[in-house]
């Protein structure tokens, strides 16, 4: 047992090493089985505003971490309506690389049906001097509908670029 702390030292060094942030995998948690209908969707998502993070932390190595930062968007196209992304951001403090993920929710309309969508999303942003903030982001979200959208699932991909983001994806329902 006296060697256990030494065995943990390499793990601690790897965990504390200065590494690029990486977005989590939010691959689909459902599959389009027999009898599922599907429709291609597309449109844009525009930035409406952002709130303050509930918690923030900066490491000595120049990494900034923000938790529970609301970002308010409006989707147009196949999915219409306001969507709020609750961001957990991990970035280089010089804004040269950013990953973010978290839950989201919105009151939207799709195919004449209105209801709530909610789920998980993730993005990965890399340097791109042609974009307004000098970074380009792309990402995905997986949504489940309730209310008038009960039984509908969405898999959406957006980016690359910056707001307004173009999105494409698929809606699944029975």
Which keywords apply here?
single chain; 174 residues; mainly beta; 8-stranded antiparallel β-barrel; disordered N terminus
Structural summary, described in words:
With 174 residues, the protein is mainly β. The protein contains one helix and nine strands, in the order αβββββββββ. The protein has one helix spanning 4-16; strands at 37-50, 55-58, 63-77, 79-92, 98-110, 113-127, 135-147, 153-158, 165-173. It has an eight-stranded antiparallel β-barrel. A hairpin with a 6-residue loop joins β8 and β9 (165-173). The termini are far apart. Mean pLDDT is 86; it is low at 1-19 and 24-29.
How do you describe this structure in short?
The protein is mainly β and 174 residues long. It is 7% helix and 59% strand. The relative contact order is 0.20.
Lateral arrangement of strands in the main beta sheet: 1-3-4-5-6-7-8-9
What portion of residues is helical?
Answer: under 10%
The number of E-state strands comes to 9
Give the overall silhouette: elongated
Summed over residues and divided by their number, the pLDDT gives a mean of 86
| Count of alpha/pi helices | 1
Helix and strand content put the structural class at: mainly beta
The major pleated sheet works out as:
8 strands, antiparallel, barrel
Order of helices and strands: HEEEEEEEEE
Ranges where pLDDT stays below 50 over 5 or more residues in a row are: 1-19, 24-29
Global Rg: 19 Å
> How far from one another are the termini?
57 Å
What percent of residues are in strands?
over 45%
Annotate the secondary structure layout.
Elements (H helix, E strand, L loop, with lengths): L3 H13 L20 E14 L4 E4 L4 E15 L1 E14 L5 E13 L2 E15 L7 E13 L5 E6 L6 E9 L1
Antiparallel strand pairs: 1-3, 1-9, 2-3, 3-4, 4-5, 5-6, 6-7, 7-8, 8-9
């Amino acid at each position: 047992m006296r060697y256990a702390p030494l065995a943990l030292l390499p793990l601690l060094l790897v965990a504390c090493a200065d590494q690029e942030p990486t977005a989590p995998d939010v691959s689909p948690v459902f599959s389009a089985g027999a009898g599922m209908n599907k429709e291609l969707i597309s449109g844009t998502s525009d930035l409406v505003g952002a709130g303050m993070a509930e918690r923030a932390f900066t490491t000595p190595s120049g990494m900034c971490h923000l938790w529970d930062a609301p970002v308010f968007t409006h989707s147009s196209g196949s999915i219409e309506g306001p969507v709020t992304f609750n961001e957990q951001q991990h970035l280089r403090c010089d804004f040269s690389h950013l990953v973010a993920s978290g839950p989201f929710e919105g009151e939207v309309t799709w195919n004449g049906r209105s209801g709530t969508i909610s789920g998980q999303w993730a993005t990965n942003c890399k340097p791109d001097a042609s974009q307004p903030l000098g970074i380009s982001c792309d990402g995905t979200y997986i949504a489940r509908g309730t209310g008038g959208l009960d039984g509908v699932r969405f898999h959406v991909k957006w980016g690359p670029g910056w707001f307004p983001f173009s999105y494409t994806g698929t809606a699944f329902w029975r």
